[in-house]
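Risk mitigation, structural track. In case the binding assays with zinc ion fail to produce interpretable data, a predicted complex structure has been prepared as a fallback.
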Amino acid sequence: MTASSFSVLFLALLSGGLLLRLYLASRQIAHVRRHRGAVPPAFAASIGLEAHQKAADYTVARVQLGMMDLLVSAILLFGLTLGGGLEALYGLASQGFTPGSLGHGLAFMAGVAVLSWVVDLPLGIYRSFGLEARFGFNRLTPGLFVADTIKGILVSAAIGLPLLAAVLWLMDAMGERWWLYVWAFWLAFNLLAMLIYPTFIAPLFNKFQPLPEGELKTRIEGLMARCKFQLAGLFVMDGSRRSAHGNAYFTGFGASRRIVFFDTLIEKLEPIEIEAVLAHELGHYHHRHLWKRLGVIGAGSLALFALLGDVASQPWFFEGLGMQAQGTAPTLVLFALVLPVFTFPLTPFMSHWSRHHEFEADAYAARQAPASALVSALVKLYRDNASTLTPDPLYSSIYDSHPPAAIRIGRLHASKA
Ligand SMILES: [Zn+2]
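Fallback model:
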């Protein structure tokens, strides 16, 4: 491969991927708008026309913002690579540090992170205070937004800088097969993060309180006993501080597993509906979806790190992406920046696999709790989160991690018979 042919390949995939995504987004907008006038028959009894139209408008607004985001990201990526941005940042870092030193590598990477953050900031502010606020979902105050941002930067720096320093050191010190060590280290870090996030990081941003005694707790304990599922605790999180969207999730492994409910979810759903939603989550555990995903991510990332190890010694990789400087930090930054351009074709396969897991979890839930309760919970969540009931089939098949509402609920109804 020559530098110029790699440049051409990169530009072709970047612009081709951008055009394809913009096309899919415009299809989604057109499809949702076309079905704005009437609630789909299956939902006519449970969702009013006004809620349906709000969902359509919210979906369109989000996809439009997503298109802006795609454009900004593509321009930033082009500017950083062939536009010479990375080369300039690398030179800037050389003014304070010896080129090639650990400090220089970290300063360079921090510069890239800060620049990307600044570029993303206006759209992020608009997302919360423009779009989400317009549809009544935003609960963030400017003060909380600033506090979150500062905490986020401090946490990222406290975790990210030592992590990157360790990776740069491994790349230098471990000889030919350094990528194998970096991969193992990266995987171990991810598992560790999953362990420490719920107990150490999440409490920096939210308050967690034990779920109070009552019907909901009794129901959940009954469900856990039925499914023979060990749990370390049930918590309620003040999600309402930031957003009106409701959610519930499992965290932790083995004996430290816990369930966290957003307070907004408990307000919206009846105890029996929450029980059904949890039965669905237990279905993911029953089918070991998390471990299957981790297995695929582990194997896939091993292949990617092997590729990283290979391109790190190829001058065409750097020159083809607009960098004269080579070495560990430029390798990592270039690889991380351009990887999504090359892995985009995998998106439909991962989405399809994820939807398959959702169907499996729904089927499990229907065996452990009334399917009708899961259906009514889903309908409420679609309505209250203003999720569209009429996605474009092609858009949905490529991006959606969850099956379209009508298909999902149709299967649940069928499972009752
Ligand atoms: Zn699920």
